[in-house]
Design brief:
- The complex is a heterodimer of chains A (111) and B (389).
- Chain A has 111 residues and is mostly helical.
- Chain A contains three helices and no strands.
- Chain B is of the alpha/beta class and 389 residues long.
- In chain B, α3 packs across α7 and α6 packs across α12.
- Classes of the chains: A mainly alpha (111), B alpha/beta (389).
C-alpha cells in the first residue's frame, strides 16, 4: 500500500475560512512528485535549447531564402523591362508586320 | 502493508479535478471491485481542485472509505497527474497500475477482467470497454439514464465477460479513462509527456511509444465501465460541450506520428470493432430477454411508450423486410433475414426458449394477424398514434 502521510498539505487558498485549513493527505507522494517535477524541468529546458537551436537555424535559412527571392525578383523585373524595350523597338515591330504579311500571302497562294 | 496474498498488487490511481457531482459514486464503485486473490489499493490524486471546500470534502470521503488521498500543492495538469500515479506504482512495488478518471462506475469484475486481458503475450496496456471510450464506444441512446448504476454496470460487464471471457482486442491507441498498465512496461516506456500540458492526446502518445517499444495496445471487450465523460475537463474549461479534444495536442500527435490517422482509419474500416459491438450488444439482448423478458411490437412506427427493463423487438406488421429491431437499456441490435412467419420461434430460440411477455399489435398487416392468432392470450391491439398530431 502507498505510504501514509501524517503531515498536511498547503491550504487551498480560495478565501473561504474552511479552505484556509490544510487538507489532510493520507498518502505521501511529495518526494515522487518533486523528483518528477525536477525531471520535467530538465526535459523542458532541453527542449527549449533544442527548439532554440532549430529556430535559429531555420531563421538563418529563412533569411537566406528571402534574400535569394528578392534577388530573383529584381532580376525578373530587369528582364521584364528588357523584354518590353525589345517589344517596343522599330525592328521588332517591322519583323512582326513582315511576319503578318508573309502569313497572309501564304494563305492566299495556298501554301 | 504486509500481506499474505499471493496475487498481483495493483494500484488504482483515480485522477480528480473538482467533480463533486460524481466522485462519491466513483469511490463507492472502486470499493465494490472484486479483488480475488489480487491486492487492490485505491489512491485518489486530487490535482489541486479549486472548487471551494471540495478538497476537504474529498479527503474526508476518502478517509471514511479507507482510500488513499493525495492533493498536489499545485495544479499539475492531467498528464503529470497521471504520471504521478504511474510513478507511485513503480516506486512502491506494485505490479500494475490502473489509471482512471473520476467520472466512472467500475463493474465488480473490473480487476479480474483487466488482469486476464493484460496477461496476454506482449500486451503493454489494456483499456476497458465503455459507453464513452472515444472511437471504441458501445453506442447507447441515453447512458446516464440507462447505465449509470452499479447494478447495471455489473450486469453489463458480467454479460460481456461471459461472451468475451479474457479476449484482448488490439487497438490503435489506449484511452486512460480506465487503463491498466504493468509497472514493468512503465519502466521501459516511461510516463506521460508533459508537453501535452493540461491534457488530451497524452495517452495516444504514450500508447504509440509503447507500440514502438514492441508492446501491444489492447481493449478488453469483456469488461464494461460506465464513463460519464469529460467531467473533469469540462469543469476545468479544457474542452467545451462542442469540442471533444484539444487541437494543439492533436497537432503534436500528427507531427510525431504522421501515419497514426491512417492506422485509425484502417482499424475502423477493418470491421473488427463493428463485429465486436455487434456480438456484445447481441449478448445484452440475449441475456436481457432470457432474464427479464421481451415484447414483440408489430408496427410501422416505433412504439411511443417504452417498457423499460424488457427487450423490445419491433417488426413491420406485414413482415416483408425480414428485419427485427431490438432495443434494451438504450442499446439497439438489428437482426436481418428473419423469416417473418417463423418470427416467434426465431425469437424464442434467441432468448433461450422463453416466450414473449407481451405481443403488441400497433398496425395491421399479414404478420400482425399471424401473431394475433399465435398469441391469442398475450397479444393486444394498440393505437400507435402520437397524442398530438
Amino acid at each position: 500500500m502507498a505510504e501514509r502521510k501524517k503531515t498536511p498539505t498547503e491550504p487551498t487558498g480560495s478565501g473561504d475560512p474552511v479552505d484556509e485549513l490544510p487538507v489532510k493527505n493520507t498518502a505521501d507522494l511529495d518526494e515522487i512528485s518533486l523528483a518528477q517535477a525536477l525531471l520535467d524541468v530538465d526535459v523542458a529546458n532541453a527542449r527549449v535549447i533544442d527548439l532554440t537551436k532549430r529556430l535559429t537555424t531555420l531563421t538563418k535559412e529563412l533569411r537566406q531564402s528571402t534574400s535569394e527571392l528578392q534577388k530573383a525578383k529584381l532580376r525578373n523585373r530587369s528582364i521584364a523591362a528588357e523584354l518590353e524595350e525589345i517589344k517596343g523597338s522599330r525592328a521588332f515591330r517591322s519583323a512582326t508586320t513582315a511576319q503578318r504579311f508573309l502569313g497572309a500571302a501564304r494563305s492566299r497562294l495556298g501554301r | 502493508m504486509a500481506t499474505a496474498m499471493s496475487g498481483p498488487r495493483v494500484l488504482l490511481a483515480i485522477t480528480a479535478y473538482n467533480g463533486e457531482a460524481f466522485i462519491a459514486r466513483t469511490l463507492d464503485s472502486a470499493l465494490h471491485i472484486d479483488q480475488g486473490d489480487a491486492q487492490l489499493d485505491v489512491l485518489v490524486l486530487d490535482d489541486c481542485s479549486p472548487a471551494p471546500g471540495f478538497s476537504h470534502r474529498l479527503a474526508a470521503m476518502c478517509e471514511q472509505r479507507g482510500i488513499l488521498y493525495y492533493r498536489s500543492p499545485r495544479n499539475l495538469g492531467i498528464p503529470r497527474n497521471v504520471s504521478l500515479g504511474m510513478l507511485t506504482a513503480v516506486q512502491q512495488g506494485y505490479d500494475h497500475v490502473i489509471i482512471s478518471n473520476s467520472d466512472v462506475v467500475y463493474p465488480r469484475n473490473f480487476l479480474a477482467q483487466l488482469l486476464l486481458a493484460v496477461a496476454h503475450e506482449g500486451v503493454g496496456s489494456v483499456t476497458a470497454w465503455s459507453n464513452n471510450v472515444s472511437m471504441y464506444s458501445l453506442p447507447n441512446s441515453d447512458p446516464d439514464r440507462y447505465l449509470a448504476t452499479q447494478e447495471r454496470v455489473d450486469w453489463l460487464s458480467d454479460t460481456l465477460a461471459e461472451w468475451y471471457v479474457d479476449a484482448a482486442m488490439d487497438i490503435p491507441a489506449g484511452i486512460s479513462f480506465a487503463m491498466i498498465v504493468p509497472t514493468a512496461v512503465i519502466e521501459e516506456v516511461g510516463v506521460m509527456d508533459p508537453v501535452f500540458g493540461r491534457g488530451y492526446c497524452e495517452e495516444t502518445d504514450w500508447s504509440l511509444r509503447s507500440l514502438a517499444a514492441g508492446y501491444r495496445v489492447a481493449l478488453a471487450p469483456g469488461c464494461f465501465v460506465y464513463h460519464s465523460g469529460r467531467g473533469s475537463n469540462l469543469e476545468a474549461g479544457l474542452v467545451t460541450r462542442d469540442h471533444t479534444s484539444v487541437p494543439e495536442n492533436e497537432d503534436i500527435i500528427d507531427m510525431r506520428y504522421p501515419l497514426f490517422r491512417g492506422q485509425v482509419g484502417a482499424f475502423a474500416a477493418s470491421g473488427i470493432l463493428a463485429e465486436a459491438r455487434l456480438h456484445g450488444v447481441a449478448a445484452f439482448m440475449r441475456r436481457g430477454g432470457a432474464e427479464f423478458g421481451y415484447t414483440i411490437d408489430a408496427g410501422w412506427l416505433p412504439p411511443s411508450e417504452n417498457a423499460e427493463g424488457l427487450v423490445r423487438c419491433t417488426v413491420a406488421p406485414d413482415g416483408l423486410d425480414g428485419i427485427v429491431s431490438m432495443d434494451f437499456l438504450g442499446f439497439r441490435h438489428v437482426i436481418e433475414d428473419v423469416d417473418a412467419f417463423a418470427l416467434a420461434e426465431t425469437l424464442k430460440e434467441f432468448f433461450g426458449g422463453r416466450p414473449p411477455v407481451a405481443v403488441n399489435l400497433r398496425d395491421r398487416g399479414a404478420l400482425a394477424s399471424s401473431l394475433q392468432s399465435e398469441f391469442a392470450g398475450t397479444s393486444r391491439r394498440l393505437g400507435n398514434y402520437p397524442s398530438r398530431v
